[in-house]
Amino acid sequence: MRHDRRSNLQVRDVPECVHRTLKARAAASGRSLSDDVLEILEREAQHPTLDELLDRVRTRGAVDLGDEAQKILRAERDAA
User: The pTM is what?
Assistant: First the structure.
């Protein structure tokens, strides 16, 4: 993920147990809480949401699987 500009983010009303857990994990890895949370957010932002994924599928249109693949899928459905 490319980082050109930075913005600040404040999260309020974090449950104490969540804060304590994240702070302990950050300390155990020798990092600051901010650095650890930033890494979690970056990782999360790299994955599409379910809605984004479904939109991608819808825009790609139908796929022709061919006769053999269709036969296999039908056989699997019938067996279920």
Answer: 0.63
Torsion angle in degrees (nearest 10) through CA of 64, 69, 74, 79 = -150
Low-confidence ranges of the chain (pLDDT < 70): 1-3
CA distance 9 to 37: 11
Domain that holds residue 75: 16-79
CA distance 64 to 67: 9
* Cβ within 8 Å of residue 29, ≥6 positions away: 36
Q: What separation in angstroms does the CA of 41 have from each of 9, 25, 26, 28?
A: 11, 15, 14, 19
* 50 occurs within a structural domain: yes
In a domain, 54, yes or no: yes
Q: Structurally, how many domains does the chain consist of? A: 1
